[in-house]
Amino acid sequence: MSGTAEIYDAVLDPGKLDLLRSWVRHQSWFDGDPERLEQVTAYRFVDPAGEVGMESFLLSDGENTFHVPVTYRGAELEGAADSLVGTMEHSVLGRRWVYDAPADPVYTTEVRRVISHRDTAADHVQMEDGAITPSPVNIRGGGDGPAEGVDAPQVIRVISEENNAEADRPLIGSPGTLSGTWQDVDGSHTAVLVVVD
């Protein structure tokens, strides 16, 4: 298990969903209506150094589900201006710089580790009362792929639940993949979320 992510009962300005709606409208992989986006669920990883927050959102516009992982930092990430999602004010932690996660080396290192070690997402601990809850997404790494790639992991942005190698999609749970299972009003869903070459 990837540790325990600290969750604060905090006020955010702007809110996460507002920030993501503003950002996705400019992304080549997004062709929906950003104003219709709602959060389905999210999962987290933990930075071993305790400095960088990592949260991966599953968002739906009513037709498609989008996978949007981000990192939260207390200062700007050098050389990553093009990957800045935006900034927000966190009532406990102060200003946070939010980045598209594949551009952040802390995220890429951790997602590779989770995949390689067949690990899971982090549990959540509420900082106000210490209550611990499991990740709402059952994340599992598929183990090492055929080679240790040096490129950034490929984040699957538009989610497909196809598990068909002939459809030119990675098999759910196969080596070199990060897969997730989650529940929503339509039932249970399982899909590949990240692939490493």
TrEMBL record:
Q: The organism sits in which domain of life?
A: Bacteria
InterPro entries linked: Mak_N_cap
- Location of the Maltokinase N-terminal cap domain: 23-104
Q: Which UniProt keywords apply?
A: ATP-binding, Kinase, Nucleotide-binding, Transferase
**In this record, what's one Pfam family?**
Mak_N_cap
The protein's name is Maltokinase N-terminal cap domain-containing protein
